[in-house]
Design goal:
0% strand
């Protein structure tokens, strides 16, 4: 499961950059932002597909893989939003994460 989580984390770092980095560079033409995003997303897929296959072969259910991926996505996004986009982190986001962690707990129970 550790290998799956590591690959999912790496893939989500790529995907977060693909989806949101262009917002830091709003002067780019849209076509450039789209091409760069697709280029970065290629590497995300090269990590996401093996992560899901390894996790599934290791006994994780598809629903469990999805929940793990969503939690990782939100954690990676929060770090990205604060460090790269300089967005403030608010208490309501932390409360939301607590509920998501609860969802993960119930998914594996």
């Amino acid at each position: 499961m550790i290998r799956t989580i590591a690959l999912l984390t790496a893939s989500n770092i790529f995907m977060t950059f693909a989806w949101y980095y262009h917002l830091k560079n709003t002067g780019w033409p849209l076509w450039k932002a789209i091409l760069l995003s697709w280029f970065i997303a290629f590497f995300e897929y090269c990590l996401m597909v093996p992560a899901n296959r390894i996790g599934f072969a290791g006994g994780l259910k598809v629903y469990q893989l999805k929940i793990i991926q969503e939690v990782i996505t939100l954690l990676v996004f929060c770090v990205f939003a604060v460090w790269v986009l300089k967005e403030p982190f608010q208490l309501k986001y932390l409360i939301s994460f607590v509920f998501l962690i609860g969802a993960v707990y119930f998914m594996f129970k």
